[in-house]
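lol ok so funny story. i was supposed to be doing the assay writeup but got distracted and ended up predicting the structure for this chain instead. priorities right. anyway since i did it might as well share w the group, maybe its usefull for someone
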Amino acid sequence: MKRYLMFAALGPLVGGFWLLLVTTYMSGYWTETNLAEVAKLFVVFAKTLQYSYLFGILPALMLGAVDDILFHVKRISPGVRMLIVGAVGFIAAELLYGSRGPDSGVVQFILYGLVGFIPGTVSSWLAHKKMSEPAIA
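and the output, tada:
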């Protein structure tokens, strides 16, 4: 149960931030930046965080289910499990967001794939660290 809570709490937070970063980069926002524009980015992130959780909690829980299934396969090491969960997140995010905007190419493919890879890998790593520690009685 802790695994799903970690994915549900951390996945939309990190994924929403990376989606905002990728979208602003792909729109050309980062060509000439200053500190005020970076502050504006964090304000937009804070205002849209509720939507990140609204639309991101179900995919995060699905990645948590993949991680839980792979956790029960004893032959798969934690590092390989993290990479598999990250790869599933990469593919899912690329299929979902990859066709956004007029640009299409390798940069867009990789950046939108990282929107799923990074939260999936980080959540899987955190679940591995917290689940492998012995419980305090």
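The CA atoms of residues 55 and 67 lie 20 Å apart. The longest helix spans residues 35-71.
back to the writeup now i swear
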